[in-house]
Write a structure and sequence with these properties.
- By secondary structure, the protein is of the alpha/beta class.
- It has 15 helices and seven strands.
- A seven-stranded mixed sheet has the order 1-2-3-4-5-6-7.
- α4 (about 80-85) links the parallel β2 (about 65-70) and β3 (about 90-100).
- α2 packs across α15 (about 405-424) and α6 packs across α11 (about 260-270).
- Residues about 1-5 have low confidence and may be disordered.
């Protein structure tokens, strides 16, 4: 399943024995808060970064000391990520992201955390530890998801090529050609690439720019899209138009997605040893998604769905709404973490901030830091054969009488892990 990842879990275990870490935590030995980001995407996922080296170097330049990756379905890149972060004194958190579909929510028109698609559901697996040697069930699920994605991208690439060809642009692109372009750009093996819509859009935009002179682009794009293009000279904006005008539901190149359901996505997270984490949009969706609003109902839903952790990408949120959601969710006994994704070409800072680069309120940042420590604890404990925040079924660790004692204790353990890691 993976190559060049030997020692990743060992690296977290080498900070000390479970007994030593628990003793440190009990004695209040930990680290003062540092900068963190618990969710970025690394190439060959579609990413703002050209290389893993660039991502880690930028994190180091900003003095970000905890860095989490959340790649789709293939984890070969985590070997390099682990080695590079260790060399820079950055603690790596390993994760994944899964797309699921709840048909009951879809039929009821309830948007979850995809504003444009009712029932479509993004879920993160945080602090996964069993990706070096996945279980048979994890391999099966990853294989099923991968095959579904591969077939869809193959068909969608063919449809895009046909539309461009019908308008005089022979791109020569198919899914394999796009994968080759990704490998040429980022390195690695073609088997490591999980094609995404953004990869296709980027490839077709690049070839279009190579083949069509600037003065002719607007007219050709109008013929391709069936409407005026406003991005004839802007690569990133044109990529977005290709997705919007050709690849979305109801458009000429759309291919229906085949998803696992939420229970299966959670099962995969558990098989990988991670924490099922709900990524929250809040006001990042413009009109808030029905699943997430009103806030009190959203929190009750999170509890009913057995979520012990949620995540925010604060750059989508106003400080006011972020504070409202984060404080209420944490008060309800749910861990909260924060990242940036970096899943577009915009090379924004690594350290998270709110909408329009506004600072995250300090009280909210403290909650996010607590969450980062919980991730470090879960990763360490699970890698060491113990139960972390949750067990393999994503149920809360029953060693603690309530959620508050569990969170506070795990945060202390994680702080002790980080202290030893940085002293290694």
């Amino acid at each position: 399943m993976t190559e060049n990842v030997s020692g990743i879990v060992d690296l977290t275990a080498k900070v000390g024995s479970v007994e030593e870490i628990l003793a440190d935590a009990a004695n209040g030995i930990g680290i003062e808060p540092v900068k963190f980001n618990t969710h970025i995407h690394l190439p060959p996922n579609f990413s703002a970064f050209e290389t893993v080296e660039q991502a880690v170097e930028l994190a180091s330049d900003e003095n970000v000391k905890v860095l989490g990756a959340g790649n789709y379905y293939n984890f070969n890149v985590y070997g390099k990520f682990s080695a590079l972060t260790a060399a820079k004194g950055i603690y790596p958190v390993f994760g994944t992201e899964i797309i699921a579909l709840e048909t009951s929510l879809q039929s009821d028109g309830i948007r979850v955390n995809d504003p444009g698609n009712p029932g479509k559901y993004y879920i993160c697996g945080k602090a996964i530890t069993r990706f070096e040697e996945p279980s048979a069930r994890a391999r099966e699920l990853l294989g099923t998801i991968g095959r579904n994605d591969t077939l869809r991208m193959c068909e969608m690439a063919a449809k895009l090529a046909a539309v461009f060809s019908a308008n005089g642009i022979e791109t020569g692109l198919n899914d394999k050609a796009v994968i080759s372009r990704v490998v040429s750009r980022h390195g690695g093996a073609s088997s490591d690439v999980t094609l995404q819509e953004r990869h296709l859009a980027q490839a077709f935009q690049e070839v279009f720019f190579q083949m069509v002179p600037p003065a002719q682009r607007a007219g050709v794009l109008e013929a391709i899209f069936g409407c005026e293009s406003k991005s004839a000279d802007d690569p990133v904006s044109l990529q977005n138009e290709i997705r919007s005008y050709l690849m979305k539901a109801g458009k000429s190149c759309y291919v229906p997605e085949t998803f696992v359901d939420l229970a299966t996505a959670k099962e995969l997270v558990g098989e990988l040893g991670g924490i099922a984490c709900y990524p929250t949009l809040a006001d990042g969706a413009g009109k808030r998604c029905e699943y997430e609003f009103p806030l009190d109902k959203f929190i009750e839903t999170l509890k009913n769905d057995n979520y012990s952790m949620v995540e925010f990408i604060p750059l989508r949120n106003s400080p006011e709404v972020l504070s409202e959601y984060v404080k209420a969710i944490r008060k309800a006994g749910i861990v909260v973490v924060a990242g940036t994704e970096h899943n577009t070409l915009d090379l924004i800072p690594i350290e998270p901030s709110c909408l329009n680069e506004q600072a995250i309120p300090q009280e909210v940042n403290d909650i996010f830091w607590e969450g980062a420590c919980v991730l470090a604890a879960h990763q360490f404990l699970t890698a060491s054969g113990e139960c972390g925040l949750v067990d393999g079924k994503n149920m809360p660790n029953q060693a603690y009488p309530d959620s508050e004692s569990r969170i506070q204790t795990l945060a202390k353990i994680g702080s002790a892990v980080l202290k030893r890691y940085y002293n290694m």
